[in-house]
From TrEMBL:
PANTHER family, per database record: PRESTALK A DIFFERENTIATION PROTEIN A, PTHR43162
Name the record gives this protein: NAD(P)H-binding protein
Species for this entry: Saccharothrix xinjiangensis
UniProt signal peptide: none
Domain NmrA-like: 3-243
Length: 275
């Protein structure tokens, strides 16, 4: 019986696919565009789009376990389609910040999906990670072209998490009964400053990199063509918390029995992205 991985062409989903294959499982991957998907040999690739929940039905044939990346569409309608198709176990990669109210524009969609999963799916595990180390790949074009990163808040620190730690928890939760009904908030093992992250990428690729600190206004200008306005303002909110986002979650260690992977390890894993 295949395990369906959604977001299989993405950051965490790609690691989930590789880990399931390595563990000897049949993997079916969902993508909106099968002809563009670069997935490992042996993966069955099936088209489907969260924006049209009925389009997920072919990918769900004979599937009881799903890794769901929360991206788009009508959350409760997607959950209904999954459950009607016979899905029993779901790992849900998404986002939830309990300090924000239900009607917060950045929270409400995710919270509605979370509640639908909890009320309908027999066996669920939520994964609400901290900021991904992989987000630093947005620096890749200027690193490759000029050896420079232009970003705000150089000293701001965040417990960035390696995508493969998130994937490892998802795979444990798909394959064993030990994580049913759990909510994990995986973070990295230590806070990493923006400027330090740039230095570690430079060390990994063997090139000295420069960090040019932008003012929030300059950052807003740089991001306005890349991200929706509410996301840009959310990023800029960081500056209001000079102590950074330094909380180290115990969840990677608790779920996997080992500490989370560090940023310098991530940089070494991703040399090809920056060269
Ligand atoms: N990035 C972070 O720092 C961070 C932190 C905490 C939580 N999260 C959460 O982690 C999740 C992944 O985020 P990400 O930005 O890193 O994603 P990502 O890895 O870039 O992946 C996006 C994936 O979603 C699939 N996808 C997008 N829209 C889809 C649709 N309409 N129908 C079917 N598949 C669709 C894409 O597949 P195709 O293009 O192949 O169709 C792609 O594989 C999100 O729920 C996010 O809220 C992210």
């Amino acid at each position: 019986m295949p395990i369906l991985v959604t977001g299989a062409t993405g950051t965490v989903g790609g690691c989930v696919v590789r880990r399931l294959l390595a563990a000897g499982h049949a993997v079916r991957a969902l993508t909106r565009n099968p002809s563009a998907a670069r997935l490992p040999a042996g993966v069955e690739v099936v088209a489907g789009d969260f924006a049209d929940p009925a389009s997920l039905v072919p990918a769900l044939r004979g599937v009881e376990r799903v890794h769901l990346v929360a991206m788009d569409g009508d959350g409760p309608a997607i959950v209904d389609v999954l459950v009607e198709a016979g899905v029993r176990r779901l790992t849900h990669l998404g986002h939830d910040d309990p300090s924000r109210p239900d009607d917060d524009p950045l929270e409400s969609w995710h919270r509605v999906l979370r509640k639908a999963i909890e009320s309908s799916v027999p066996e669920w595990t939520h994964l609400f990670p901290g900021e991904f180390m992989a987000n630093t790949r947005e620096w890749a074009p200027s690193i490759r072209a000029e050896g420079v990163v232009r970003a705000p808040f150089g000293d701001w620190r965040s417990t960035l998490v390696h995508e493969d730690d998130i994937a490892a928890i998802a795979v444990e939760a798909l394959l064993t009964d030990d994580h049913v009904g759990r909510t994990y908030q995986p973070t990295g093992p230590e806070p990493v400053g923006r400027r330090d992250a740039v230095r570690m990428i430079g060390e990994a690729i063997g090139r000295e990199l420069r960090f040019d600190e932008l003012t929030p206004e300059q950052a807003r200008e740089q991001w306005q063509d890349v991200y929706p306005p509410e996301i840009v303002e959310w990023f800029l909110e960081m500056g209001r918390y000079p102590e950074g986002n330094s909380w180290v979650s115990p969840d990677v260690e608790e779920a996997l029995g080992r500490p989370g992977l560090t940023f310098d390890r991530w940089a070494r894993d991703h040399v090809a992205d920056f060269t």
